[in-house]
Amino acid sequence: MRSPPPRVGSSLNDVALPSDGEDTIQSISWSPVAEYLAAASWDNKVRIYDVAQSGSAQGVSALCAEGPVFSCDWAKDGKKVIAGGADKKIRIMDVSTGQQDIVGSHEAPVRGVRFVDVPGTEGSIIMSGSWDKTIKFWDIRQQGAAIASLPCGERVYSLDAKADLAVIATADLFIHLVDLKNPTTFLSKVKSPIRYQTKAVAAFPDGKGWATTSIEGRCGMNAVDEENARGINFTFRCHREIDEPNKLIKIWAINDVQFHPVHTSVFATGGSDGSFCFWDRIAHSRLKSYFPSATPPSAVGGTHNARPASITATSFSRDGSFYAYALGYDWSRGAVGNTPQIETKIMLHRVTEEDARLKSAGRGTDDTDKNR
Description:
InterPro entries: WD40/YVTN_repeat-like_dom_sf, WD40_PAC1, WD40_repeat_CS, WD40_repeat_dom_sf, WD40_rpt. The chain is mainly beta.
């Protein structure tokens, strides 16, 4: 069964942020209270941008680390930014004053950091995940000592937290779930719905499920509660293309997945193929695809022109009006793919109604390999 041609949108009006970044951007995070954007980079910095409604932006400040920074996040009040990376430390910066401190550290590089809401605690709690195979929780008022530590058994590759749910993906293809009402133990540990290396996980905005992406151009949705699994669980293929002359299927890694904060059934994926796509989780449908660093295929089965850049990180703004994505090199094509033509930059896409809502009732998914 051949699926219909995808809806392709134009990225010509997307705006580039001013940047002096010198290496791949690994993480992007929007402030929950203002149009401020944080971007963590392999050049040892987290840059903060003030974004105007027009899409223009200016740099405000930067958090500096002693190695590549892999993850960043904002406090719920928008006053502080945290970061973790190769120097094994969890750093925090007051955005208004620029003051920087170290909250805690791991025994190996820190792969992910998030501010989380833990009922019954005062102040801000930080969750961090590391290649030392642990998840730790930190109270920023008690610098240096974790208030809880959970052994994961393998390296943490990705993590996220929304509502009362924290989801952690590890190198052994397991997904660990934590109920933040009781962060001293795992709620459950389940096998990843995808057979190949996990690239990213994202919790549903209501905390009732999560998304998983992999290096194999596949994305999965899963419910926390088994009784809801039938209506939520499925996987599907995306960020793939068919090279007709050579009869080859090109498969690209899905580097990031993010849910829209208002239209919560809508999510976006960004891949090594240099494209990002908007999807409707409930309708099992692709809404629109964008190819900012490549010429899109004329129809399904066609091939893209060679693309110089991958999408390495993405994030929706607090009201979902902007979708930020980073273009750069993710080493998915080895050293030979890292050419001087690749430019590291952050782009802002203004989210339209077509991006965030399904327009034609009853339209099926563009990718027919879905498993419910």
